[in-house]
């Protein structure tokens, strides 16, 4: 596995209303742990659209990991001005990630036209990657459910892999962090 993508929920689908939400650091820890294990196994590139939420947080984690690990980040939004309707804080974060990415290229060099741009983006990511790291509540997949359904079909008919970070994984990380913090208070 040399190239993967990351998919997941948008902030509002996770009931996260601002970037100061106490859950975001735990999400980033989960992403970091999994990505480091993939890098140790030979992962070279992570490519994604940079969608606000899980993808954008993963891109921020990868930007940090690039300082210590040989990992590259590619951002491929489905169209120009992809982030234009997002809240300002996410627009700013997206623009920062573009600056830190090793490669940036919208898949369509035009603004939003029609749903086909999202549909084709999903197919493109599946064709260009060996697998996907998904941080999605499968009971409530939200917008990530569209690409995840296509990825599941690809996994059934090819060597495509899907790795999940589950709500239980996140609970374990919260518990581990609490135990670590308590043990370091003494």
Automatic annotation (TrEMBL):
Pfam annotation, one family: YpsA
Family annotation (NCBIfam families): PRK13660.1
Species this protein is from: Gracilibacillus thailandensis
Entry protein name: DUF1273 family protein
